[in-house]
Design a protein that fits this description.
Length: 794
């Protein structure tokens, strides 16, 4: 690897799924895994193409129950292209001698190059070079160029170019016993002599899909249709001369019935592929679009972590590009890279939007609008549960209903178990936090005073309604929830799921209530009056919000913040004993369940829970929040809390090391780099044990970018100023990037050797206030400044 490319040498079947995920190409509208074009889905390979927001439901029989699941649909495979020599069989890396093999992902250009040399049954050698892209300028196009060179022989080869509609959703092993065939009514045909087409629809959501492929070669070829049921295919017979290269270009167009301003997806796809330019023209416009993206997303980090961060940024931009701003989609937790988590939207936007807010605010606004469009559904969910306000789902997909599975499989024991993660109502606080952060960074008061405040009000209303007053404590309590930890979903031996007074849930609920009151107080009178009339707000309800926001119970034990009420009474786990017995204990919950035990009995967490508060809020903000709730959380108490949970966390999520690295950095702890380094390597080294092959972890990838942007700089967009409180970290001592802030484009920031350089490009925008711990300076457009930072080293 280097700053601009990511390479894999050789062919290793055990690594194929990982490479396919990390070599995925996309443009925000759709993405295709980096699978070999000549291979179909099997135990080694898994070609997959996914369009943002394209979901479907199927019903399966699970453990004697009828279970309905919604999935992001694996669309017809456009990539299919295979070759065979005369009299031979189709060449694949698993059936023929492969002399060499290399993948080269060009991050700057957004292309994947694959080179291979095959030897067929007769000893004839064929060199294959392929270049593919999913077009970043035209989000409906993809291209595959294949160059074939005979080495030491001459003769005919057959090339089959196809669109395969027989695909299913089988990319995740633990889902394979479930219903998986989402595509139906597959029709195929031939358009112009060089074009084939395929159309189909999803079985329940009835999303129509149209796909067309144009395949041309620079050599004389005999072309015939080769359609089979569910596959649109053409066969090209090409005469190869020794040492001479034949080029085959395949251009594909994809449309769905979700697209605006089209009548029929198939007609649109056939028309688009017919009008598309040649390969060189499309390659150039694609590269230009990527150059512009990189210019706006610039992140310059010196040292060995720079290439990893660039790869993370590449995959973020492929999943959530400027094209996303035109779509009705959320943040898929595993990108558009695979089928894990069924392509659902969780709370991962909490780790993604802060980076986008300062780079592509129009994308952030669109992602928040996805949540606003589903506000009414969240209100209906709250009403059905006997609650007020909006109860957003833990897992969301097409229409905003709760998509969390009722049962989940423990692969270690083979048992299907109840899944109570739908009780993670803190997702509502994450949405409110994202609304606030976006508006602070962008200055988009129009969104804040319309869609934003509507979400804030209904989420605040939910928390106020869920909180019950405890006369004995003299505090409000929120009962029956699950926190970010996820391991703990009930008290030991309890008949019902849920925990009381999860500290993270209660503190963030208090924050939501306070912010909603702030926004209502600052709104223009006419807008406020309209909102009050529309939502039925009255002074008594606002008084309740004030009381709850300052009166929620936060439990403590042994001089630290308790994860939830009663946490301190749980048993201690023999951590070293389990590590000796099992080695990797990241998924401690599965280990204990397979033993007939339960993680609910122990002080053991999957990932950061209480410590998430240190991720969301600066020390000053966190201290103010706790003071509002009647507690003094000083540095000493917070350090004790960090120490307590650090030694009791198994890090069964890629987000855990990210949050711990962030928190330890702010706590000025030397251990921070250990966790930051693990967060950086999480997907590229597949530290979670095979999960990356099912799709990248987008939240963790984006979080490492934001770690540089906000975590190490201490950057906050609060109170109309850019606030900095940099964290000294020797391993990441020099870095620079540009941001968009309240109308300013390309504000340059650079940190090195205890100095912060700020350059504001010339414009008609007002000056920017830069605030450090000991001073505030104002930088006007067209000006720069260099600030010496306070010495914060331990």
């Amino acid at each position: 690897m280097d700053d601009l490319t990511w390479e894999y040498e050789g062919y290793h079947p055990a690594q194929e799924s990982l490479r396919e995920s990390l070599c995925t190409l996309g443009n925000g509208y759709f993405a295709t895994r980096g699978a070999a074009p000549e291979c179909t889905a099997d135990s080694v390979h898994y070609p997959g193409t996914y369009a943002a927001g394209c979901y479907n439901r199927l019903t399966s029989q699970v453990a004697g129950q009828q279970i309905e699941n919604e999935d992001m649909v694996n669309l017809p495979n456009w990539l299919t292209l295979r070759v065979r020599t005369a009299g031979g069989t189709w060449l694949t890396p698993d059936s023929h001698r492969l002399l060499d093999h290399r993948l080269r992902l060009d991050l700057l250009a957004g292309t994947l190059e694959r080179t291979a040399r095959y030897e067929d049954e007769e000893g004839r050698r064929l060199a294959v070079r392929q270049l593919r892209l999913v077009h970043m300028a035209d989000p409906h196009l993809a291209l595959l160029r294949t160059e074939l060179t005979a080495e030491g022989w001459s003769g005919t080869v057959e090339v089959e170019s196809a669109l395969d509609g027989t695909v299913t959703n089988n990319g995740v092993e633990r889902y394979r016993s479930l219903a998986s065939r989402h595509l139906t009514d597959v029709r195929t045909g031939t358009g112009k002599p060089d074009t084939v087409w395929l159309c189909c629809r999803t079985s329940a959501s009835e999303t129509c899909v149209g796909m067309a492929a144009r395949t041309v070669t620079d050599m004389p070829a005999v072309t015939t249709d080769a359609h089979t049921p569910g596959r649109a295919a053409q066969s090209l017979g090409i005469a190869l001369a020794d040492g001479r290269t034949a080029t085959v270009d395949k251009t594909v167009a994809l449309h769905t019935s979700h697209d605006p301003a089209i009548e029929d997806p198939l007609d649109a796809a056939v028309d688009r592929v017919g009008r598309a330019g040649d390969f060189e023209t499309l390659l150039e416009t694609h590269r230009t679009a990527w150059r512009q993206l990189w210019r706006n997303a610039e992140l310059d980090v010196r040292g060995g972590v720079g290439p990893i961060l660039r790869l993370h940024l590449f995959h973020l931009l492929q999943t959530l590009s400027p094209h996303t701003a035109e779509l009705d989609v959320g943040v898929p937790a595993r990108g558009l890279h695979g089928e894990a988590y069924r392509g659902h939207v969780f709370w991962d936007e909490l780790f993604v939007l802060p980076y986008l807010n300062l780079r592509f605010p129009e994308v952030s606004r669109a992602l928040l609008t996805y949540r606003h469009r589903r506000l009414e559904r969240a209100r209906r969910s709250a009403q059905d549960a006997g609650r007020t306000g909006a109860m957003y789902p833990w897992q969301s997909g097409g229409d905003g209903r709760e998509e969390t599975q009722r049962l989940h499989l423990n692969p270690r024991s083979g048992r299907w178990l109840p899944d109570h993660s739908r009780l993670q109502h803190h997702v509502g606080s994450a949405i409110a936090y994202n609304v606030w952060q976006y508006c602070e960074a962008s200055g988009d008061t129009e969104f804040l005073h319309t869609k934003g405040v509507e979400m804030l009000v209904q989420i605040a209303r939910f928390w106020a309604g869920l909180a019950g007053y405890d006369d004995a404590l003299g505090r409000y309590r929120i009962r029956g929830v699950v926190g970010p930890d996820e391991y703990h979903d009930a008290y030991p031996d309890a008949a019902r799921p849920g925990l009381d007074d999860n500290a993270y849930t209660n503190v963030t609920a208090a924050w939501v209530l306070a912010r909603a009151l702030d926004v209502l107080g600052e709104m223009p009178e006419l807008l406020r009056r309209d909102l009050v009339e529309r939502t039925g707000l009255d002074p008594a309800e606002l008084d309740l919000w004030h009381d709850v926001s300052s009166g929620l119970h936060v439990p403590f034990h042994a001089g630290v913040i308790s994860q939830f009420e009663g946490y301190g009474e749980l048993a201690e786990l023999d951590w070293e004993g389990y590590r000796r017995r099992y080695g990797d204990i990241r998924r401690l919950d599965r280990i204990l369940e397979a033993e007939g035990d339960s993680v609910n009995r122990y002080q053991a967490s999957k990932q950061a829970d209480v410590l998430m508060l240190g991720y969301l809020f600066s020390p000053a903000e966190l201290g103010a929040l706790f003071r509002r709730l009647g507690h003094e959380v000083d540095d000493a108490l917070w350090r004790r809390t960090v120490d307590h949970y650090l030694s009791r966390t198994s890090h069964g999520s890629t987000l855990s090391s990210l949050v711990h690295g962030w928190v330890l950095g702010r706590a000025r702890r030397a251990e921070a780099w250990t966790y930051i380094h693990e967060a950086l390597r999480g997907d590229i080294a597949d530290l979670q044990g095979g999960t990356t092959g099912e799709g990248i972890h987008l939240g963790a990838m984006a979080g490492t970018l934001d770690l540089v942007q906000r975590g190490l700089t201490g950057l906050e967009t609060r109170g109309g100023a850019l606030r900095f409180d940099p964290v000294p970290l020797p391993e990441l001592s020099e870095y620079g990037f540009s941001i968009r802030y309240r109308g300013h484009r390309g504000v340059q920031l650079h940190l090195n050797a205890g100095r912060l350089s700020v350059s504001v490009p010339a414009s008609d925008e007002p000056p920017i206030d830069i605030t450090l711990a000991d001073r505030t300076v104002t930088v006007a457009p067209g000006e720069s400044c260099v600030l010496t930072l306070p010495d914060r080293r331990q």
